[in-house]
Design brief:
65% of the residues lie in helices and 0% in strands. By secondary structure, it is mainly α. It starts with a helix and ends with a helix. About 5% of the residues have low confidence.
Length: 193
């Protein structure tokens, strides 16, 4: 899967649908953003849920899902990995699935390459991800990895596109005041007004 097609696919899937697909309790994203904005100036992010190894795996995986390109930085450049740690810490119902998925990813890499995911070469990592990134093409024995990757992809996309970098990547300008001068003259004439 090429990096450009992955980014384009995630942009389509990740803007509104991915945000909707990722169930958040009201205010969770806003709380995270407010907390990070306040803490960013003073201290680096402190992990809340993941172990050091799990966090490193999340970072590598996130940057493979949304790599740096000529338009913007990578998922970790945007802080998506911190967002994921925050969300998983806040939502206990996700914790077993995500931690289990990270363990599955390491186990699959150990089985194939005798190394954990973060220690694999880029081509080896891509080989595993190509087997789980496309649910319709995945073999049945990859179903655990497919579910994990789908959830991580949604989390990475939501973290990236809710960050300042992601908003700039989308070109979103926000709600801006405009001047409305009424309907065009030809419309008014057509309506007899």
């Amino acid at each position: 899967m090429s990096e450009l097609s992955r980014r384009r696919m995630l942009k389509v899937l990740g803007t509104a649908p991915a945000a909707a697909a990722v169930s958040f309790q009201p205010g969770t994203v806003q709380a995270y953003l407010a907390e990070r904005a306040q803490a960013a100036a003073a201290t680096p992010y402190a992990r809340r849920f993941f172990t050091e190894h799990e966090f490193a795996t999340v970072m590598v995986l996130a940057d493979m899902i949304i790599p740096r390109d000529d338009r913007s930085g990578s998922a970790t450049d945007s802080g998506a990995h911190e967002f994921i740690d925050y969300i998983v810490a806040e939502q206990p119902e996700r914790q077993t699935r995500i931690r289990g998925g990270l363990a599955w990813l390491d186990a699959e890499c150990l089985r194939r390459f005798d190394r954990r995911f973060v220690d694999c070469a880029d081509a080896e990592r891509r080989q595993v991800l190509d087997d789980i990134a496309w649910p319709a093409k995945a073999r049945p024995e990859m179903s655990h990895g497919v579910r994990f990757f789908s959830e991580m992809r949604d989390l990475v996309a939501t973290g990236f596109w809710s960050s300042r970098m992601g908003v700039e990547d989308l070109g979103y300008m926000g709600n801006r005041p405009t001047t409305w001068e009424g309907p065009p003259r030809e419309v008014l004439e057509k309506l007899g007004l």
